[in-house]
Design goal:
The chain is of the alpha+beta class and 447 residues long. It folds into 2 domains: 113 residues, Rieske Iron-sulfur Protein; 283 residues, Alpha-Beta Complex (Naphthalene 1,2-dioxygenase Alpha Subunit, Chain A, domain 1), CATH 3.90.380.10. Strands 12, 13, 14, 15, 16, 17, 18, 19 and 20 form a 9-stranded antiparallel beta sheet that branches. It has a 4-stranded antiparallel beta sheet with strand order 2-3-4-9, with no helix packed on it. A 4-stranded antiparallel beta sheet has the order 5-6-7-8.
Length: 447
């Protein structure tokens, strides 16, 4: 046995020092550097339809919470345990105003104010020293969002352009994940997994054309990233674009519907918008919108079922029988199969992991800036345009190949750089003027 074989044998590797995760990135609880950073942003916590006439118990960022809507229609997101004797408020009674603990009748408003303590002679004075922990909440287009950070630093609520397309419909959905949030989020920064996991290795799970190895170009923005992927289709180039807004917002282009290879298309919009929200250190949940609008891929009725919503996203139906999941694994198996928290020290990152490396680097920088310097992270709406311009899209250009393969790859790379620059050039525009401006500029790139 040669030295290399001996060095990398299972016996030797099993004896190596245990490799752990990047603690800065994976810990989300109160007081942790990563948790404090994430708490500076608005996050979806539930689907509006999940909030009925009874309190909804949930866990987010390592905290046990209750979400409810009182009789006046106001939402409350509060700590799960009553500050009196720690009874669980998942068994509380929703009131015309606020919520009432079932144990001793203590009555709290949606902001945690103690309104009444029936057995106490002076509940007004008690209110000066007892409050129920509560967070600001906002309902937006079928999702309930919350802010978990310092109350004197609540950022503006971000609205994104893809959620404001005229004539559009947003269908919210949720997919629980049995692993740390980072494993799920950085999957969007790994374009090569689409080629192999979803197309070449097992079977074609979405569309065969996703199996074409793309040429990729990366672009950093003040609030995140986007990357363009160029796939050659005879005389045409299909350019699909993913975008990521820090810390956990992501969008992608068409999933089921790609180009037929013979029709130009300018900035068709993405299929879904999603946030990867930590539940605790070892669990997370995907809260998202499926887009049905004139600019997204053509809607089909079968895409509106709960099963289809899961399938189009991260899971490939995670509740399938185990044997079926082994035969036809998808994102859920690839991501959660890394373990509850992947040991980053055991990874061997390569050139195809450029996006993952960049994403982690930006997150670390933001976490350290807050922890070491007290510098709050830049908010999604920082550049001023509203709604916030994003880049998740599909463009198809006529771009005949060069005679030489290497020359063609270089030409495609240059084209992708030009497309990215055009996308950024319209950041100051919104609505139809932005789409018209982009279409005009993109059309000039046809050959």
């Amino acid at each position: 046995m040669d030295d290399v074989t001996r060095q990398f044998s299972g016996y030797q590797q099993a004896k190596a020092p245990a490799a752990g995760p990047d603690e800065l990135l994976v810990r989300v609880g109160p007081g942790t550097p990563g948790g404090e950073y994430l708490r500076r942003f608005w996050h979806p916590v539930a689907i509006t339809s999940q909030v009925g006439d009874l309190p909804l118990a949930l866990r987010r960022f390592g905290e046990d919470l209750v979400l409810f809507r009182d009789g006046s229609g106001h939402y409350g997101l509060v700590h799960r345990h009553c500050p009196h004797r720690n009874a669980s408020l998942e068994f509380a009674i929703v009131q015309p105003r606020g919520i009432r603990c079932c144990y001793h009748g203590w009555h709290f408003d949606v902001d945690g104010t103690l309104l009444e303590a029936p057995a106490e002679p002076d509940s007004v004075r008690l209110d000066q020293r007892v409050r129920l922990g509560a967070y600001p909440v906002r309902e937006y287009k079928g999702l309930v969002f919350a802010y978990f950070g310092p109350p004197d630093a609540v950022p503006p609520f971000p609205t994104y352009d893809t959620c404001e397309i005229e004539g559009g419909e947003l269908l919210p959905y949720e997919v629980p994940m049995d692993c740390n949030w980072l494993q799920v989020a950085e999957n969007s920064m790994d374009p090569m997994h689409v080629v192999f996991l979803h197309t070449r290795v097992n079977r074609v799970q979405f569309t065969k054309k996703l199996g074409i190895l793309p040429v990729i170009r990366w672009f950093e923005t003040p609030i995140g990233f986007f990357y363009t992927k160029g796939r050659r289709m005879d005389d045409f180039l299909w350019i699909s674009t993913n975008d990521i807004v820090l810390p956990n917002f992501t969008q992608a282009g068409a999933v089921h519907e790609s180009t037929d290879g013979a029709t130009t298309k300018y900035f068709g919009r993405n299929s879904f918008t999603r946030w990867i929200v930590p539940v605790d250190d070892t669990h997370s949940t995907v809260l998202a919108y499926r887009h049905f609008n004139p600019r997204a891929e053509s809607p089909r009725d079968e895409w509106r079922t709960p099963e289809a919503l899961e399938e189009i996203d991260i899971t490939r139906l995670r509740n399938r029988p185990y044997r079926e999941r082994q035969i036809d694994p998808g994102d859920y198996e690839a991501v959660s199969g890394q373990g509850p928290i992947t040991p980053h020290g055991r990874e061997h990152l390569a050139s195809s992991d450029t996006g993952v490396v960049r994403y982690r680097r930006r997150l670390r920088a933001g976490i350290r800036a807050l922890a070491d310097e007290g510098r709050a992270p830049l908010q999604p709406g920082a550049h001023g345009a509203a709604p916030i311009p994003t880049y998740g899209s599909d463009t198809v250009l006529r771009f005949p190949p060069a005679p030489d393969a290497q020359e063609d790859e270089a030409a495609v790379g240059e084209l992708l750089e030009a497309v990215g620059a055009i996308y950024r050039s319209a950041d100051g525009l919104t609505g139809d003027p932005r789409y018209e401006d982009l279409a005009t500029k993109l059309a000039t790139l046809n050959r």
